[in-house]
Amino acid sequence: MIDQATSTLFLADLQNGETGIITKILGHGAFRKRITEMGFVKNKKVLVIKNAPLQDPIEYKIMDSHVSLRRSEARLIEVVPVIDSKENTDIEFDGTILEESLEQLVLEKTKTINIALVGNPNCGKTTLFNHATGKHERVGNYGGVTVDTKEARLIQDGYTINVTDLPGTYSISEYSPEELFVRRHITDNMPDVVVNVIDSSNLERNLFLTSQLMDMNINVVIALNMYDELENKGDKFDYEALAKIIGIPIVTTVASKGLGIKNLFSKIIDVYERRDPVSRHAHINYGVDIEEAISRLRTEIKKNKKLSDKYYPRYTAIKLLENDKSFLGQLVQEEDTISILTLAKKEIEKLEKEFKEKSETIIADAKYGFIHGVLKETYEQQQIDRRQKSNAIDSLLTHKYFGFPFFILFLWIMFQLTFSLGSYPMDWIDSVVGYVGTFLENLLPAGSLRDLLVNGIIGGVGGVIVFLPNILILFFCISLMEDTGYMARAAFIMDKLMHKIGLHGKSFIPLIMGFGCNVPAVMATRTLENRKDRILTMLILPFMSCSARLPVYVLLISAFFPHNQGLVLLSIYLIGIVMAILAALVFKNTFFAKQDVPFVMELPPYRIPTLRNTTVHMWHKSLQYLSKMGTVILSASILIWALGYFPREINFSKNYEGMSSAVKNNSSLSQKEKEEKLNQIDVDKQSERMENSYIGKIGHFIEPAIRPLGYDWKLGVSIITGLAAKEIVVGSMGVLYQSDTHADEYSASLKNKLQEQVFTSGPKAGQKVLNPLVAYSLMLFVLLYFPCIAVIAAIRKEADWKWASFTMLYTTILAWFVAFATYQIGSLF
Length: 829
Ligand code: GDP
Ligand code: MG
Description:
Blueprint: H1 2-6, E1 9-10, E2 19-25, H2 29-37, E3 45-50, E4 58-62, E5 65-69, H3 71-74, E6 77-82, H4 95-110, E7 112-119, H5 125-133, E8 150-156, E9 159-165, H6 177-189, E10 193-199, H7 203-216, E11 220-225, H8 227-233, E12 236-237, H9 239-246, E13 250-252, H10 261-272, H11 288-302, H12 305-310, H13 313-322, H14 325-332, H15 338-355, H16 359-378, E14 379-380, H17 386-397, H18 403-443, H19 448-465, H20 468-484, H21 486-500, H22 508-514, H23 518-524, H24 531-540, H25 550-560, H26 565-590, H27 611-645, H28 656-665, H29 671-692, H30 694-706, H31 713-721, H32 728-736, H33 746-756, H34 772-784, H35 789-798, H36 801-828
Parallel strand pairs: 7-9, 7-10, 10-11, 11-13
Antiparallel strand pairs: 1-6, 2-3, 2-6, 3-4, 4-5, 8-9, 12-14
Helix pairs in contact: 7-16, 9-16, 11-13, 11-15, 13-15, 18-19, 18-20, 19-27, 20-27, 22-23, 23-35, 24-26, 25-33, 25-34, 26-34, 28-29, 30-31, 31-32, 34-36, 35-36
The structure holds guanosine-5'-diphosphate (GDP) and magnesium ion (MG).
């Protein structure tokens, strides 16, 4: 019984002799009406008389009469099975309790309402969803922020309401994958009530989608959102009159303040229970010629019972006349549709000849005509609207010449805030991490545990957690740009340039963010509407050199390029950008060659953002970031630490113990000299231990692969440790090149060690490892190879494993070839 409460069964699933209680009838209104007339209503018991696997129709007994239903019909009737207590003797409780729990289950099932939120991009669906369900999804004043569906439930007046937030669309035709997705969700999942969220400040365009929902003959409730803005403008809108005309109840809401949401859900319950006086099926009148065509087609469609159960016949007729490709594709899969399709073709030809227009356009025009008409009757607009104010601002911010300087100014402010303002809390966190490390070091006895905590966990995670403030500030700025509507303008400005490399204007934002940290940048690709753009952007993002790579460049440049330091650094960044562009061009022409979807660059009106949205957004991000600390980075740090720490039993080549006691007992040395010598001995010992550790063995193992690049095994190990996070590369070099990491002149001494380093074995034994050429090739390698584990995890989350693995492979292979070419060609000179 418990199990059945969670899963949903349909009448067609019941076997011979089984009884079920009807809890819900799905499907379009006309189908429901017919089935209800046959006696199939909520709470009625049905007994299966004959249901063989391949048999159609199935015979049932309901209210003492025998009826047969087609399998396709029985699939649309939700039931709760009645288990006969006599047959199930192993069930302990007696009949009455069984009855009670059954009743409870039926009640639960009949009081579960599935709803879907549909509406134009940016109309406030996600804000409404968040307010109603208490979830914190991302919202933004930026078309298409919602790209997947989100589900959550709420309970009101004893009803459990499952809410699905769908992607925003202007229409539900075949125009884009999102539109198709929304339409499929409505026809396949058959939500009990569809909530059409409408932006009050743009009624005409928003009602177009409504007109398509009307064609489908499904239960709809309109949430007239952003009603505050309509009132502020002083417009007068008799929405109750509109509701009566279109047969759809309308509830006003201000989602951003949570107003009207309770009312909306009461209305949804009323419509579900069929006790709302306004809710009815109303047709749009398409005019004599189209109506006649519809009516002839409908007669033909109605002959195919299976089809007319699935889709409302008038809707099928309209879709056919619109010549909707994907709908046709679905129709061809149904049985006996040839006569319907031939008739549709004939009717379309007739209409197009008469109107001298595409049939699709004729129908869309008729819809707009209808909307225009009803609004004329119910809506009275004030003279000056917000659009005009927005236009005034836009004439400056998206100006042909002034637009770019403004954009760069805003970006500059954003990065300044991120790095300069962020450096204060960064220092605080850094000192807290340092303090905790020292505290533990003093508290715990020396040994593996202390080493794991201090060097493995605190060293690894602490090194990354210091970036949290920067990430928070960056995301605050970005959400502010989104909420005010500026982000859409930025995308607009960049669109032309980005199109040249197969990307979208909106891809520019994540790419820019990538210079800070690739992880939030990958997450920011969510703002792109279609999957192709999202994946393409993620694939090239790793070439945007993130701030974690900077310490590596700084070290190598200061050691090997005493002149033109800035120029060398800039060249690395530029090579990254060039690589990104080349990769984008290649991918665009290979993986995504045919999927070019036209799109509308939506410029929503400017809005004053609410603090609630912006903070919710920020909090959400910080949680995501922290959870990544706790999982990916934590495990990677522990792994790398362990690989470097074990095995502990090593036969050292020198007697370090003896050497240090000799130094300690040497009275001819000053205290300072002693300390220096002891440190050096310790560093040498650690370095030998590292060489013999597992990670050292891995380094030796991969040495043949990196020899052609001019690297020794120590660089190999450093590169491997950089998989966890690129800044770790510097730390590993510090350990391996036997530089005293405790000394103050740490980087200076590391620089010297790098310059002096020679090969210890192989054909080049005795020669210097690093020179300007090798250093440059190494910087390119670090720039291009495997982004870091956190980025891969983010890509896996946003795309899938396939793309994450592909990114790991192609970036590393590319890095190898570029480093190889640089080294080999450079060696010629
Ligand atoms: P979606 O694309 O439909 O999911 O839209 P969002 O939920 O992301 O909202 C877009 C923007 O509209 C956000 O900046 C919200 O703060 C804002 N917004 C949502 N509802 C209202 C409302 O009722 N009034 C006002 N003034 N703004 C709103
Ligand atoms: Mg949304």
